[in-house]
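Field: sequence (string)
Field: structure_tokens (string)

Example rows 1 and 2, in order.
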Amino acid sequence: MTHHKSNRAVEGDPEHGHSRGMPRRVDEDELQARTERDRREVGLPGGPTEDPDAEYRQEREEIDREVGTGEMPSGRVTRRERDPFPPSHYER
């Protein structure tokens, strides 16, 4: 009695069902459809934003606002003027 399966039982029929790897060119339409389906399954919006520049501008405005209010350090302090280590505790 053997405890190993034959190659045919493990791999299936060698003439059918085995591909040679990724195709040379990806089917862009199928890839886009799969991406949208996967995004819906995990609860993300269906597709990319229409205007990536608008998204960049929005993020940039948020950063500028945080720097202006002091929520985010501006980086205007030179390396020599900064503390050598991060603080050991933070304010709550």
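Row 2 begins here:
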Amino acid sequence: MKKLIQRIKRLLKRILKRSAFNSQQPSPLINSRPLDISISSVSPRWESGLVLVCSQCANERSGSTASEDLENWLKSRLKFEGLWGEFRVVSTSCLGVCPRIGITVVVVSNGNHGNSPCLIVNPQSDRELLYSYIKQNKG
């Protein structure tokens, strides 16, 4: 029940922020005409965080699937502990960090208060540490 109330509060805050933001924004104009395209927004199911795993880091150098293995391990772990709906693990193309050793992972979560760290992770030895970090930054 407590989690439900917290989710409702977060949802209400988001709705209020959006309505305040939309009321402050002038309508976009192109050549003095209103823009014909409207962009929809949705509230994702993953409210606590998004974990971006670079698919290029290990694959570029060795043809390895280390980033895919890390991504699948994180997904399995989140599902096992019942956190899969709150967090989402997504493979992404190059994040531009390109470490010599390791995989680039960015953790975007409500618990980070706008600071999304870019982590260089050893896909084998740092798994548990990364997972603990993700859980600690739960929104």
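free_text_note (row 2): The mean pLDDT is 78.
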